[in-house]
Amino acid sequence: METTQNGKVEEEATAGGDGSICGFESLGSVLLDGLIFGYDSLDRLLGDHLHPKVFQSAVYFMGLNCGRALEAVPLADCAKALSSEYDFDILAFRFTADKELLREPRVVRVGLIQNSIVCPTTFPFLEQKMAIHENVKPMIDAAGASGVNILCLQEAWMMPFAFSTKEKRWCEFAEPVDGESTRFLQDLAKKYNMVIVNPILERDINHGETIWNTAVIIGNCGNIIGKHRKNHIPRGEDFNESTYYMEGNTGHPVFETAYGKIAVNICYGRHHPLNWLAFGLNGAEIVFNPSATVGELSETTWPIEARNAAIANSYFVGSINRVGREKFPNLSTSGDGKPQHTDFGRFYGSSHFSAPDASCTPSLSRQKDGLLVSDMDLNLCRQLKDKWGFRMTARYELCADMLARYLKPDFEPQVISDPLLPKKSS
Predict the structure, then answer these.
(1) Out of 152, 261, 267, 299, which one is annotated catalytic?
(2) DSSP reduced 3-state for 161
(3) Which residues constitute the signal peptide according to the record (predicted)?
């Protein structure tokens, strides 16, 4: 037995040859109460257990920013005081770019907020929504006190993520683009001179009150710049969201704000490389991925997909995920043969930023509300385009031709078979 620096006691584990995780029977044996051996993030676990020099070497493989480890940014005392008073995680880091001779640095301060629901899902809907507003406001105030220029909240932040229940009554949480959650954030955007990305469940009043999964972009003057609707809708197990809304119809818009060009790749869209690509082709410098996803389903891919997208498309990515377990009144099934349940797993937070040079910030807590702040020099986007030449070498005409042929009913894959292989019967 060994006592770690944070007072937790753990057993030394060895790799198991039986499919276990490092000698443990299941992921649940490693993740107790949402913690990794008592730690709320992998970065904090490694920092506590590795010698400082070894930890710095490990940072190399996590990605260096312009040849250096990412540096922490000091936060205003009032922001730290809000974090302490309202018990939310707060971290801040800085991405730099190489100094240029002809362009000044284009430094923008960006924030991500992850949050849990506050009331049980049996409470009146308006009470649930207002409680979430009140819970999120101190984090927005901390972002404002920290000088954040652009802030993004998580997917459908103003409600429980009830879409696994298949119950239509949760549609009552849907709002028009200019509804109460947008108005709430418009006041704060204007107060703090801050662009806010507001992911909501939208009710489209002008088109038969259709429901959409939408991100509303609020300008730093409190105006509505525009909206984007979720392009890709999952249809598997608990995440069968087409019960409520279908694929969006807004394309891949990039919003030019006072602080830079931003886009929003909502949740499941992160699994689709062409979705990431399209935002890049339209000129995005920062792409946000507001999400709601649970442990065993996606946590192994969470640190990888956004970082890959940032590298491949030469832009920054902000990944946001909610936290906690959300239990609903009625049992539902995943359609996978497992028992019915009232929740569909633990939302694991772990919000983070990724940069085009493969560097990334440490993540926020796996189980706690939080605000992540990052300074980023947008000059890094062009510098990485010049370095790798991905746009110049991508051969988009080949991809366009392939996709055009693939979409035809008579498409045949381009497969060249070894003539010595046995003939297949038709």
Answers:
(1) 267
(2) coil
(3) none
The Cα 291–Cα 148 span in angstroms is 21
- Looking at per-residue confidence, does 275 or 21 come out higher? 275
DSSP state of 241: G
Q: Which two tokens stand for residue 100?
A: 């240029």
The pTM of this model reads 0.89
Residue 404: Cβ-neighbour burial (10 angstroms; 0-12, 13-18, 19+): exposed
**Tens of pLDDT along 109-124?**
999 999 999 999 999 9
What is the Cα–Cα distance from 350 to 369, expressed in whole angstroms? Answer: 10
- Ordered by start, the domain boundaries in the chain are 24-62, 65-388
Residue identified by tokens 């443990």 is 24
Tokens of 193: 């001179």
Annotated catalytic residue 230: yes
Catalytic residue among 129, 152, 155, 285: 155
| CATH number of the domain located at residue range(s) 65-388 in this protein | 3.60.110.10
What burial class does residue 369 get, using C-beta atoms within 10 Å of its C-beta: 0-12 exposed, 13-18 middle, 19+ buried? buried
> For residue 383, what pLDDT band results from cuts at 50, 70 and 90?
very high
From 129, 227, 230, 368, active-site residue: 230
CA 96/CA 80 separation, integer angstroms: 24
Percentage of residues in the chain having pLDDT higher than 90: 76
The C-alpha atoms of residue 304 and residue 300 are separated, in whole angstroms, by 8
